[in-house]
C-alpha cells in the first residue's frame, strides 16, 4: 500500500516556508517524528511498513502523513541520484550581489530556476546571497551555463566562488529522533528496495538508455510513485519497471529515496558550513567523517575541490545551538581545520527538478 497524492512534475521540493510553523520539533508528537524519520531513511517505505515500525495502524499513519503533506511540512518525495555515474559534473557556486532590492533578487532567482542545467537554487545570508549548483556534461557545457548566470546577474554581481563537487552524500535526519528510542530492525524491510540499496555493485560498462532517464525523472518528481503508475507512464510491465529500478540501484545511480521536509516549519534553521582542511591524513578524515555521521544535526556532506574541501549541511534549533555545533567541530578537529565559513539558507527554490542528458 503506497500513499498517493497528486504532485506536479515541476513542483518545488524542500521549500522552507517563511513565517509558518506547524509545531516546533521539541513539541511534535513522538509518533509523527518517527514517521518523518522512517520516510527520511527511505521514502518508498509502504504505509504498512511504516505502521509496523512506529506502532500505529495503517489508517492512522496515512492520515498523519496526509496532514503533513497538506500543511506543507512534507512538500514532496524525491531521489538521491549519483550524477557522477552518469558522467555529469557538479559545480557549487555562491554569488554575492550588490545594489539589489527584494524585487530584483526575486527576478534573478526566478531566471536561475528556469535554467535547466542549474539544479539547486537557494537564497542565503553571510558572505553570499545566492547558492546554485550547475550540472554539466563537460567544462564547455559548464562554461555555457556559467555565462548565462553572469548575464542574468549583470552588474548586480559583486563576487562569486566556484567549487567542483567530487562527493555528495546524505548523512540522514537523525535529529528527528534525538532522545527517542528507535528500534533499527530488518524485520519489516521487505519494500523500498532496501536489499538492493544495501548491496550496490556498479559495473565498469555502464549503459543507460532514455527510458532510464525518464524513470529517474519520474522518481525525482515523486519517489513514492507506485509501480503501477510508473508502468502506465513508461508503458512497461511491472517486472520490467522493478528490474530497471534494481539495476539503477545496483549501478549506484539511484543512491536512495528521500522525503523533503520544510525544516523551518519545525522551528529549525538551515546552515551550510564550509571547511578548508590542512594536514588531513586518511585516519583523521575517517574520524572527521565519523563525527559528521554520528552528529544528529549534520545532514549532508559535500566534498569539493577549490577554496573549500568540505561543505556540510547543518540543521540547528537557533543561532546559539549552531554556534555550539560549530564550536564542538572546531575543538575536536582544530589540528586539521585551516579555515571555515558559514551561510544560513533562507529558502530553497529548486532541487534537481529534471535530468536532461
Give the helix proportion (percent range). Answer: 25-40%
- The H-and-E topology, N to C, reads as HHHEEHEEHEHHHHEEHEEHE
Assign the CATH superfamily of the domain at 25-74 and 176-260. Winged helix-like DNA-binding domain superfamily/Winged helix DNA-binding domain
Strand content: 25-35%
What's the multimeric state?
A: single chain
Instruction: Give Rg in angstroms.
Output: 20 Å
Count every beta strand, where a strand is a DSSP E run of 2 or more residues. Answer: 10
- Uncertain runs with pLDDT below 50, 5 residues or more? 1-17
Tertiary shape? globular
Total of DSSP H or I helical runs spanning 4+ residues: 11
Task: Please summarize what this structure is.
This protein is of the alpha+beta class and 357 residues long. The protein has helices spanning 30-41, 47-54, 58-71, 102-114, 139-153, 194-197, 210-221, 227-234, 238-250, 282-294, 319-332, and strands at 76-81, 89-97, 118-125, 130-136, 157-170, 254-260, 269-277, 298-305, 310-316, 337-351. 35% of the residues lie in helices and 25% in strands.
Structure, described:
The chain is of the alpha+beta class and 357 residues long. Helices cover 35% and strands 25% of the residues. Among the domains are: 25-74 and 176-260, Arc Repressor Mutant, subunit A (Orthogonal Bundle); 263-346, Alpha-Beta Plaits (2-Layer Sandwich), CATH 3.30.70.920. The protein has an 8-stranded antiparallel barrel, surrounded by 4 helices. Strand 8 and strand 9 (310-316) form a beta hairpin. Helix 2 (47-54) packs across helix 3 (58-71). The longest helix has 15 residues, at 139-153. The protein is globular, with a radius of gyration of 20 Å. It starts with 29 loop residues before the first helix and ends in a 6-residue tail after the last strand.
